[in-house]
Specification:
6 helices; alpha+beta; eight-stranded mixed beta sheet; 14 strands; single chain; six-stranded antiparallel beta sheet
């Protein structure tokens, strides 16, 4: 008796078992509610385990001195002996794939590739040390012979690695230098033909023409990877697995890249400094008779806007609140549906009893 007044505070009054009516439609509603509650429970747990991403923008106030560039490019129609990689920045610093004086640090590799795409021999190509001046066209004959043999075998080249450059606008490009171009057998044959024509003309005042047919240099390429900094989850690099293959014409490819500094923060709270980039492409065909050698240019510039990407998860308390809301809401709805079905079935049964009584 002393607890009778306190028991009146209970919001969950219980009826005696002989006063409780259990129905088949009530059992159906209950099973449906349990299945729905289980489904929503696992949905909330899965949502809790997956992080939500928030992206914000602001002015870049970082003072980093260097930019790391990761490259992996295949040129299936040019051998490694004929390809040079040069890097230049806005300050005037310049370097090639042998010295890379523009790079604070770096590591690049040239891999020889057969015509079928397989790796040739040991693969690694080591460029010989230069023993000629920058303005002379003379090269050691064994190097010329090796390059022409590779051209005849339709060798390709894969260039991969990384380099760190100053955080200023600049470019790096793949091209065939003039000394490589004039050492090619096709160019030598054209130069010999022009020399014979001059000698046959008996005109000492006539200047020797320079061969300008660069259409034999096929700059088709496959960019397997191009990144400006470490990769973070969900990052998209537009140049990854990008292909430009052509057997009809050749020309100069220019990729204008806008590098956007990005800070990524995972759900663990660890910060990672990387870069995203946007891309604009321009292609200039090279025709026979033009004094221009085909090349592939990557011209980059840095954006003053910094992007912050955060992946976050809700707390455990937030998960418990949502689970309680889902389970409670499901059973509230099923209880309401049960009451509606009970009212409907009671009405139908009472009308049926009236008709049966009237018929009798």
């Amino acid at each position: 008796m002393r607890w009778s007044k306190f028991n009146r505070l209970s919001a969950y009054a219980r009826a005696d078992s002989h006063l409780v009516q259990q129905t088949s439609y009530g059992a159906l509603v209950t099973l449906s509610g349990v299945c729905l509650a289980i489904l929503l429970f696992f949905s909330e747990v899965g949502r809790y385990r997956s992080a939500s991403r928030v992206t914000t923008m602001g002015v870049d106030v970082s003072r980093g001195e260097h930019l790391r560039i990761t490259v992996n490019i295949t040129l299936p129609a040019l051998p490694c002996a004929a390809i040079s990689l040069d890097a230049v920045d806005i300050s005037g610093s310049h370097g090639d794939d042998n010295s890379l004086s523009v790079a604070h640090n770096g590591e690049l590799h040239k891999i020889r590739i057969n015509a079928d795409g397989s790796r040739k021999g040991l693969g690694e190509y080591i460029a010989p040390k230069q023993q000629w001046g920058p303005f002379t066209l003379r090269r050691p004959q064994e190097e010329n012979a090796a390059m022409n043999a590779a051209l005849d075998k339709h060798e390709g080249c894969n260039i991969h690695g990384w380099l760190e450059v100053q955080r200023v606008a600049g470019n790096f490009h793949l091209s065939v230098h003039a000394d490589h171009y004039f050492a090619m057998r096709s160019t030598q044959e054209e130069l010999g033909r022009l020399l014979k024509e001059q000698m046959a003309s008996h005109d000492a005042q006539r200047a020797l023409q320079v061969p300008t047919d660069a259409t034999t240099i096929n700059m088709s390429h496959i960019i397997h990877k191009m990144a400006f900094g470490p990769r973070y989850p969900g990052q998209i690099n537009p140049l990854d697995e990008y292909r430009r293959i052509s057997d009809v014409d050749t020309g100069t490819f220019k990729y204008f890249i806008k590098v956007v500094p990005t800070y990524y923060q995972g759900w663990t709270g660890k910060m990672l400094h990387s870069n995203q980039y946007s891309l604009t492409e321009y292609y200039s065909p090279v025709h026979k008779g033009e004094v221009q050698l085909p090349a592939i240019y990557f011209l980059y510039d840095l954006s003053p806007i910094m992007v912050t990407v955060k992946d976050a998860r809700g707390g455990l308390a937030h998960l418990l609140v949502r689970i309680c809301a889902v389970v409670g809401g499901v059973f509230a709805i099923t209880g309401m549906c049960d009451r509606w079905l009970h009212w409907l079935m009671t009405s139908v049964n009472s009308q049926h009893d009236k008709f049966s009584y009237a018929a009798s």
